[in-house]
C-alpha cells in the first residue's frame, strides 16, 4: 500500500514513486508445473495510470461544491493491479493560502522576521537557507524539474518542524530526505515569511522600477532599491540569486531555465503581505492581486538573475558615496 498526502497543485510529482511499487509476481501467471525462479514483472506505466485515476478523482471532488465548502479532510482509496493508494484532501481558498502571517512562536524560523532569525543565529543568512541551498547544489542541481516538482507534504512538514525546533540531527535528515522535499522546504520558508524578502515598504517601488522603459533609469532604480534593503534581506537575496544562476547553468540537464526558476520564486520573494497589498488599490481579493501583479514579480527577479554579479560590498560602497554626495 502506498500512502500519499495530497496538498500541492503538482500531482505528477509522485508518479515515479508509485511506479516503483507497481510490480507483480510473474509466477502467478505461469502455468508450468516446474519450479520457477521468482521473477518480478512491472505492469507498463501502472504508476502513471494509477495516478491518472487519482488526478481524475481529485478534479471531480474539486468541482463538487459540498467538498470545496467543507473544512474537513476527505479520505479516499483507489486500487489498480494490486496497488492501493490512500489519500486525504482538503481544499483551501487561494485567499488563505496566499496570506502571510507572523508566527506566534518566535523561537522558530518559519513565520519569523528574517532579521530576528539572523540576529539570534549571529549569521548574515538564515541557517535554513544556507543548508537547503547547499544540499540542493550537492545532489539536486541535476534533478529534472528541481524547484518546480513538489516534494511530499509530510516530508516538508517534518523538515519544517526540525528547523523550527533546531533538531540536532537536521543534517542527517537533510542527507536522507528526498531532494524535492528540501527544495520545497526552502520555498515554504520564503513563502511563510511574515513580510516578503524584498519587503512591503519597497514593493510599490519595485513594481514601478521594473516598468521603466529607459535602461539606464531602470538600472539606477533597481540597484538603488537593492541598496535600500535591510542587510539580512539583501545578503539572503544575493545568496539565493547566485544559487539560482548555478541551477540555471544546468538547464540542459534539469530543464529549469532562468525564466522557469523566476516564475517559481518571483511571487514567493515579492508577494506583499495582505495589509500592504490592498493599500491604494481597488482590488481587495488576494487572488485578484495575485493575477494582477504576478508577472511583474517574475520580471523583477528575472532582471536581477540576468544582471552581472552583484556584490554586497559594492552596493554598500555605492550607498556611502550617495550619502556623502548629498
UniProtKB/TrEMBL annotation:
Q: Which InterPro entries match?
A: Abr/Bcr, Rho_GTPase_activation_prot, RhoGAP_dom
Residues annotated as domain Rho-GAP = 112-312
UniProt xrefs under SMART domains: RhoGAP
Q: Which Gene3D superfamilies match?
A: Rho GTPase activation protein
Q: Which domain of life is it from?
A: Eukaryota
Q: What is this protein called?
A: Rho-GAP domain-containing protein
Amino acid at each position: 500500500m502506498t500512502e500519499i498526502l495530497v496538498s500541492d497543485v503538482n500531482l505528477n510529482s509522485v508518479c515515479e514513486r508509485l511506479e516503483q511499487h507497481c510490480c507483480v509476481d510473474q509466477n502467478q501467471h505461469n502455468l508450468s508445473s516446474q519450479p520457477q525462479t521468482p521473477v518480478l514483472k512491472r505492469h507498463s506505466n501502472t504508476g502513471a495510470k494509477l495516478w491518472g485515476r487519482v488526478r481524475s478523482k481529485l478534479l471531480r471532488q474539486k468541482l463538487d461544491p459540498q467538498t470545496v465548502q467543507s473544512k474537513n479532510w476527505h479520505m479516499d482509496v483507489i486500487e489498480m493491479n494490486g496497488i492501493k493508494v490512500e489519500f486525504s484532501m482538503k481544499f483551501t481558498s487561494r485567499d488563505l493560502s496566499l496570506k502571510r502571517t507572523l508566527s506566534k512562536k518566535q523561537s522558530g524560523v518559519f513565520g519569523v522576521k528574517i532579521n530576528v532569525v539572523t540576529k539570534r543565529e549571529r549569521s548574515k543568512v538564515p541557517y535554513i537557507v544556507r543548508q537547503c541551498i547547499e544540499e540542493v547544489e550537492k545532489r539536486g542541481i541535476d534533478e529534472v524539474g528541481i524547484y518546480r516538482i513538489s516534494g511530499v507534504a509530510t516530508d516538508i512538514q517534518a523538515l519544517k518542524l526540525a528547523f523550527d525546533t533546531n533538531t540536532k540531527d537536521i543534517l542527517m535528515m537533510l542527507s536522507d530526505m528526498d531532494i524535492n522535499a528540501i527544495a520545497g522546504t526552502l520555498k515554504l520558508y520564503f513563502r511563510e515569511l511574515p513580510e516578503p524578502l524584498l519587503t512591503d515598504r519597497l514593493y510599490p517601488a519595485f513594481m514601478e522600477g521594473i516598468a521603466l522603459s529607459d535602461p539606464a533609469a531602470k538600472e539606477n532604480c533597481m540597484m538603488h532599491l537593492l541598496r535600500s534593503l535591510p542587510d539580512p534581506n539583501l545578503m539572503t537575496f544575493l545568496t539565493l540569486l547566485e544559487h539560482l544562476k548555478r541551477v540555471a547553468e544546468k538547464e540542459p540537464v534539469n530543464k529549469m531555465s532562468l525564466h522557469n526558476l523566476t516564475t517559481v520564486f518571483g511571487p514567493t520573494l515579492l508577494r506583499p503581505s495582505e495589509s500592504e497589498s490592498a493599500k491604494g488599490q481597488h482590488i481587495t481579493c488576494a487572488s485578484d492581486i495575485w493575477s494582477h501583479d504576478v508577472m511583474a514579480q517574475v520580471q523583477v527577479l528575472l532582471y536581477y538573475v540576468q544582471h552581472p554579479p552583484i556584490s554586497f560590498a559594492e552596493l554598500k560602497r555605492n550607498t556611502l558615496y550617495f550619502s556623502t554626495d548629498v
